[in-house]
Amino acid sequence: MYDAADRSGQGRIRLHQIAYVNGSFVPLSEAKVSILDRGFLFADGIYEVSAVLDGRLVDNASHLARLARSVGEIKLKLPESVERITEIQKELIARNQLADGLVYLEVTRGAHSGRDFAFPKGDVRPTLVMFTAAKDIIGAPQAKTGISVITVPDIRWARRDIKSVALLAQVLAKQAAAEAGAGEAWMIEDGLVTEGGSSSAFILTQDDVLVTRHNGSEILPGCTRKAVVKLAEERQLRVEERPFSVDEALRAKEAFITSATVFVQAVVSIDGKTVGDGKPGPMTRRLREIYVDFARATAV
Q1: CB neighbour burial string for 276-295, b if at least 16 within 10 angstroms, e if fewer
Q2: Which pick of 42, 45, 181, 241 has the fewest CB atoms within 10 Å?
Q3: pTM of the model
């Protein structure tokens, strides 16, 4: 029985499950970090989320490569090697008997005795925590029905390519979506869609071209986005990496989002206006099938 549920849809978290904190596996209810931790005080940290199918990690190497890049961009050294992090993830999955869901990990610059904005001097060990959450990604009802999205101004900082734990802007966007009964918020800057609150945005034009914003400092380089683009190109589908507007999305045949915790999910309305026929389109359904096959075939 689940003791708590994450209402954002990221997964269900059992309070009696096992977490990992700085070298130790402990009951989640006993997992603690210092109130002086810079992740708590300054959001001075990076996080990653990897999907789990059939007890195995999906596209995990891509997520850990992004983790290594993000920590490098903020001059934060990982306290464990990428290989050791993978071992810890797998042990958490086993200890929690997780079949389908996700593994969350966070690394911060650690705890220091003073609240100074500059990096602490001396030997301060980074904090590394991980936990798992159960989620039925394959059988999620939204995979069949699609979701509605709302649009909100993109008020985030200028380095969105870094997977920072500073997520207040996304929290506000996702809360606005929840209050509107929508499944996601698309963030808008200069009249163009950047990305979703926790997802990458795609459209399929009337000319059967898949369009998603190009990677840059304006968006997070989504791992699922990257895989879907590659899978589409391998099947000779036309892909354009460029910005698009909400008006273009509303004129499109289909729209969808990608992320580690939804894979490929149709968008059937934007700000209350229908996309296509208001149902998940054939291209979105097919790309989801292709991605699920890829996820199962390559999971470790």
Answers
A1: beebbbebbbebbebbbebb
A2: 181
A3: 0.93
| Residue 113 confidence (pLDDT) | 86
Q: How far apart are CA 21 and CA 32, in angstroms?
A: 7
User: Tens of pLDDT along 179-214?
Assistant: 999 999 999 999 999 999 999 999 999 999 999 999
Say if residues 187 and 153 touch (Cβ distance below 8 Å). Answer: yes
208-264 tens-digit pLDDT: 999 999 999 999 999 999 999 999 999 999 999 999 999 999 999 999 999 999 999
- Region 87-95 average pLDDT: 98
| pLDDT for the residue 12 | 60
- Whole-angstrom CA distances from 205 to 130, 227, 276 are 40, 20, 10
163 is catalytic: yes
Kindly state the tokens that stand for 221: 């380089």
Q: Residue 64 — φ and ψ, nearest 5°?
A: -75, -30
| Rounded alpha-carbon distances, angstroms, from residue 141 to 135, 137, 144 | 12, 9, 6
Which of 219, 193, 197 lies closest to 147, judged by CA?
197
Active-site pick, 75, 121, 163, 230: 163
Answer for the pair 284, 204: CB distance below 8 angstroms, yes or no.
yes
* Amino acid 73: pLDDT: 98
- Which tokens hold the place of 132? 């798992």
CB 12 within 8 Å of CB 2: yes
CA atoms within 13 A of residue 146's CA, in its CB half-sphere: 21
User: What does the block give as tokens for 266?
Assistant: 């149709």
